[in-house]
Every structure is written in C-alpha cells, then in structure tokens.
Amino acid sequence: MSEYAEGAMPETNDAKTTLIIGAGAVGLGLASCLHRAGRRIHFVVRPGPGPHPLEVRGLRRTGILGEARIAPDAVGISRSFSALPRLDIDAILVCTKSSANPELAPALASHWRSLPQPVPVVVCQNGWGNAEIFARDLPPEHVASASILTGFRRSEDHAVEITVHARAIQIGCLYSGELQSLEPLCAAIDAGGIPCETSASIEADLGAKLLYNCLLNPLGALVGVPYGRLGEEAPTRAIMEAVAQEVFAVWGAGRFQVHWPDAERYLEVFYADLLPPTADHESSMLQDLQAGRPTEIDSLCGAVVALGQKFQVATPVNSALLELIHAAERRARPDKT
Ligand SMILES: NC(=O)c1ccc[n+]([C@@H]2O[C@H](COP(=O)([O-])OP(=O)(O)OC[C@H]3O[C@@H](n4cnc5c(N)ncnc54)[C@H](OP(=O)(O)O)[C@@H]3O)[C@@H](O)[C@H]2O)c1
Asked: Phi and psi for 297 in degrees, rounded to 5?
C-alpha cells in the first residue's frame, strides 16, 4: 500500500467526481474526506503560473480528526470552468471566501447548465445571503448551504490542519425541504472523518454561525486578541452583547427560524459552551487584514445591517463594526479603494 492510499477507500472506475471550487482550507479539508470515502476530487482554482502545488505534492490532512493523503495524480485541477475536462460530477462545493461570489456565481451557473443532469451546489461559506447570490443564476432548489463549526487551517498550499471541531457539519437547502439528494454527500464527508448530516433547519444553523462570527470576528480583528479575551473584559462583552441583541431584533422582525428564544438565552450558551473551546483562536478576519485580503464583513455585520434596513430595525453596533472593518481594509489595501 502506498503512503497515499493509507486510510483511503480505493476509487472505483465508476466513482463520481465532486467538483470543489477553491483549494483553500475548507476545500482541502472536505476533499480529504471525500477521497477517503472513495470519490474522485477535482478542484477549480484561480489561474496561476506553473503546476499547482496539489499536482506536485498531492494533498495532506493532519489534525484532530485524523490524517489523510491524496496522491498528486489523484487530484484533478482546472484553472477555469472552461478548462474542465468531461467529468461525471455528483456535487459542486463552493469553498471560496464569500467576497468571490459576485464574480463566481454567473460562471458557475453557466457551467452547471452544461451538465447532463442537475447536481447540488453546496455553498460552504460563513455569513448570510451567500446562497441567495447563487440562487439568482441557478434553480434555487439545487442550491444548498453548509454550516461548518469545524476549524481548518491551510498550513501549506497543499496541506490542511483540522484544529477544532464543535459540531457535525449541517447541510440543507433554504429553498426546498428535499434532503435526499444531499444525503450521499453528507454520508461521504462523514465516512471521510468529519461528522456531517443533512439539516431540515439550515436557516437556524446558518444563523447560529452568523451570530458567533458577528460577535467574535470583527472585534477580534479590531482589538487583536484571541476570542477568549473578548469575553473577559467588560467593554468587549458589552459590544458583543449589543451585536447579539441587534441580530435577534432583526430576526424577530423578519420571522426567521432561530435556535434560541432571545439574545439573553443565546448569550448564556455563548459564554458557557461556545466561547471556551475556541478561547485561544485568533480571528481569521485579522489574518485577512494582515495579508491585505478582502474580509467577509459584508456577509456578516453587513448582512445584519441590510436586514435591519429591510425590516426597519436599528443596528448601530453592527453598522459601526462594518464601517471600522471597511476602514481597516482600506488601510491594509490602499490600492483597492
Ligand atoms: N477555515 C475555517 O476554519 C472555516 C470554517 C468554517 C467556515 N469557513 C468559511 O469557508 C469559506 C472558505 O474559507 P477558507 O478558510 O477555506 O478560505 P481560504 O483558505 O482563503 O480559501 C479560499 C480559496 O478560494 C480560492 N478562490 C478565491 N476565488 C476563487 C475563484 N474565483 N475560483 C477558484 N478559487 C478561488 C482562494 O484562492 P487564492 O488562494 O488564490 O486566494 C483560496 O484558495 C469562508 O466563507 C469561511 O468563512 C471557514
């Protein structure tokens, strides 16, 4: 057995291919699972010079949910949709940051329409309103969303570390109650080492992740401390609690599906159960700012502000965080303003 085959089911000749858009932390992590479960993997990556590191070194996964490897010749790479070979695709996973969506969605939809049969497109992104962008160009019942409370870190261009795992990945569709078409994908991710299940309450699952991210990501980036410290000091606690109150007010006005009755109950759970396991984590938004990359603030606090405008609910604290992160982005990327 080669080192690459260790722990993996062999691909069969009739194995389906899962198309993964974006070979970042989440894309690599999910690919490692699907390959272990016997599926073929093909990535669409951004254009770049020379062979992609995955084509040279294969894929390596380490971390708390076990190790996995994929040999270089078992990883398919295309640098655009038009360069894709003919593949028997069973699902498409969108694993880019949400800032890529406006450009990506029309190109993905055009490719999706060329496939011989409809396949689910699963948006594996944090934030609110991402699936809606893809559902403008695709039949909404084929656009699913994943709520991911697993932490992935791309340690090298071909390597991912799973650093934390809080709950099974939830995959469901905001536009249809049909979950059967998502079950094979969930079963494969699960078999590959990351617990994963279909969800009939994906709106509430995405909302739960939105809340967690709105409370911690922007403030963690602005203050520059790990998440746990934000819960230790009165001023940062007050800001997080105000963010939660605004999100619950917006959800109440919009009659959204929610896992907690009110902000007070959520905050009890947040401080007791959700914050402690990630106390040492630094905000990925801070890393984006430091690297001069766009952040996902528009699909986090920006989405709350937009919902507040729609339902006439004041969201001054989310609005302030949105503006402060935009200012930090302009400072980090002066050429992009
Ligand atoms: N990392 C986590 O622990 C985690 C957990 C839960 C949810 N999420 C969410 O999952 C999403 C992905 O996060 P991530 O951490 O995997 O981000 P990431 O490591 O930055 O990966 C995103 C990848 O997408 C690529 N990309 C961007 N635009 C593209 C395009 N048009 N075509 C093809 N590839 C493109 C990027 O390429 P370049 O390298 O060239 O920029 C990068 O490789 C985000 O919404 C994030 O919030 C992340």
From this structure: -60, -30
